[in-house]
Amino acid sequence: MSTGDWIALGSAVATFLGVLVAIGAIIYQGRKITHQLVLQNFSEYTKRYQEIILKFPEDINEPTFKLEGRSDYNTTMRALRAYFDLSYEEWYLNKRGFVDEGIWAVWEGGMKTALDKPAFRQAWHKIRSDTQFGVEFENFLDQKMAGK
After folding, report:
1. Count of CB atoms situated within 10 Å of the CB of 42
2. Range of the domain at 121
3. How far apart, in whole angstroms, are the C-alpha atoms of residue 2 and residue 98?
4. At a CB cut-off of 8 Å and minimum separation 6, what does 44 contact?
5. Residues 82-122: pLDDT tens digits?
6. Domain for residue 16, yes or no?
7. Is 82 within a domain?
8. φ, ψ (nearest 5 deg) of residue 5
9. Residue 35 maps to a domain
10. DSSP codes, the chain
């Protein structure tokens, strides 16, 4: 091989290595952006959740909670409807594969905890009778209420 061939080979190797480094940097940046978007979406849903629960009455978690006949029935139902709408969005995003497994575990656990409480059970029975979320989501919530 001549000196010119060695220079050409060295140049080709350097270019190849440069391309590999660039591809690695792109992959690294893509992962960082994806991580940031996941965190941003989680924060947005957490903010929406907090806004909803701040509208719940103080006794929402009490085992003796009775929804019917409350003086704040309409306000409470509006907040509970917003909660189930948010739960549907979270379920839908997960169903389509748009939610990180760890985040879904947090959301699903929260839904299970909520549905263990009388207020949410009573509201779900009412909401289910006058709102259609679709059979899959309705079955999902029913399973959560059954402890599954």
Report:
1. 16
2. 55-145
3. 56
4. none
5. 999 999 999 999 999 999 899 999 999 999 999 999 999 99
6. no
7. yes
8. -65, -40
9. no
10. --HHHHHHHHHHHHHHHHHHHHHHHHHHHHHHHHHHHHHHHHHHHHHHHHHHHTTS-TTTT-TT---TT-TTHHHHHHHHHHHHHHHHHHHHHHHTT-S-HHHHHHHHHHHHHHHTSHHHHHHHHHHHHH----HHHHHHHHHHHTT-
Place of tokens 């000196």: 3
Cβ–Cβ < 8 Å for 67, 73: yes
Q: For residues 138 and 84, is the Cβ–Cβ distance under 8 A?
A: no
In a domain, 21, yes or no: no
Contact 137, 92 (CB under 8 A): yes
pLDDT for the residue 7: 77
Place of tokens 């139902």: 77
Q: Which amino acid is at 12?
A: A
